[in-house]
Design brief:
The protein is of the alpha+beta class and 329 residues long. The protein folds into 3 domains: 4-145, 2-Layer Sandwich (Mth169, Chain: A), CATH 3.30.1280.10; 173-218, no CATH class; 255-309, no CATH class. It has helices at 16-27, 50-60, 91-103, 124-135, 173-182, 189-202, 208-217, 220-223, 225-228, 242-253, 285-290, 292-309, and strands at 4-11, 37-45, 66-69, 79-84, 109-117, 141-145, 231-232, 238-239, 258-260, 267-272, 275-279. It has a 6-stranded antiparallel β-sheet with strand order 3-1-2-5-4-6, covered by helices on one side. Strands 9-10-11 form a 3-stranded antiparallel β-sheet, with no helix packed on it. Strand 7 (231-232) and strand 8 (238-239) form a beta hairpin. The termini are far apart.
């Protein structure tokens, strides 16, 4: 069985990320006595000898800027290690695996993280607050305080994860809401009740995969619930959904340059006889929040896919950021 190794990479000079953390602490009203030490951590799985480890550290550590060590740092209550949650894309780890292949080093798996060492005496409440509010993103990251992190290796692991059953029978509305929050399902109470009723009729509880599949397919991103939902105004009046309003407005205006709208996955217009242009807008709010690189990448992929699906050739992409009013709760 392959063994694990960890490389800690520290800056030779001052790391500006430490100042950013100290500034964030001051902004929250919990200043710390000094900026923390910040280090990168690379976890490697494989049967590696001393020469293999030397080859990796020579590749991964910039000798002008960094120093690397395979020694495990001592645990202290002010020290925090942050790693990605299972399933989140770890692009630097892919680079480590690729480097192993190029170097002839048998890297079976890799993962990356960060190590934050607060000044001695920093209390636990301050550490917890700064990790949650300034340093880590709890949507895609997890952390361990006072001990070394346990990484999740993706390619290269032989672990088999058993299928789990998620008990829904007998849960009331509060119990379903608690389950949804704990598993980050992002489903409405009515949706959770519908799922519970379906599996009650099946005479069994859902597996974890089934429940996650429903959460994904019924998500805002996949189902476009905001666009499709009827809108209730402050006076109680109900008006059609944004999607219906857009469709109705498009049909009512009946612009001569619109060749196709709300039929395929891309709209088609023509301003010059004999030439058509396919237009596609892709919203990736939640995917990009969960995993910025992957979310943006699949957004771009969706635009290209749908333009090509309409028998057109992609020629340009735009990147637009939209923000609602800052005072909206």
């Amino acid at each position: 069985m392959a063994s694990g190794h960890r490389l800690t990479l520290r800056a030779l000079d001052h790391d500006p990320r430490a100042d950013a953390i100290a500034d964030g602490a001051a902004a929250l009203g919990v200043p710390i006595s000094a900026p923390p030490a910040v280090a990168e951590v690379v976890f490697v799985e494989g049967d590696l000898g001393a020469d293999d480890l030397d080859a990796l550290v020579d590749f991964l550590a910039d000798p002008l800027l960094q120093v690397g060590s395979w020694d495990i740092p001592a645990d202290r209550p002010e020290h925090v290690e942050i790693t990605l949650l299972p399933g989140v894309t770890d692009t630097p780890a892919d680079t480590v695996r690729h480097a192993g292949t190029q170097l002839g080093v048998p890297v079976d798996g890799a993962a990356t993280g960060r190590r934050i060492e607060f000044p001695a005496g920093t209390d636990a409440a301050t550490v917890d607050l700064l990790v949650r509010r300034v340093i880590a993103n709890p949507i895609i990251e997890r952390w361990s305080v006072g001990r070394a992190a346990e990484p999740v290796f993706h390619p290269g692991t032989d672990d088999v994860v058993p299928v789990g059953r998620i008990p829904l029978a007998g849960l009331d509305a509060d119990g379903l809401a608690a389950l949804g929050a704990a598993r980050v399902l992002a489903l409405d109470p009515e949706e959770l009740v519908a799922i519970q009723a379906h599996f009650a009729a099946e005479g069994r509880d859902p597996t974890d995969v089934e429940l996650e599949t429903l959460a994904q397919t019924w998500s805002e991103h996949c189902a476009h619930k905001t666009f499709r939902a009827d809108i209730t105004l402050t006076d109680g009046t109900t008006i059609p959904s944004l999607l219906d309003q857009l469709r109705t407005a498009t049909d009512t205006i009946a612009a001569s340059f619109v060749r196709s709208a709300f039929v395929g996955n891309a709209g088609i217009v023509s301003f010059t006889p004999g030439t058509t242009v396919a237009l596609k807008a892709e919203t990736h709010n939640h995917p990009s929040a969960v995993e910025p690189f992957g979310g943006a990448n699949t957004g771009v992929g969706g635009v290209i896919r749908d333009v090509m699906g309409a028998a057109h050739r992609p020629v340009a992409l735009t990147d637009v950021l939209c923000f609602g009013p800052a005072d909206v709760p």
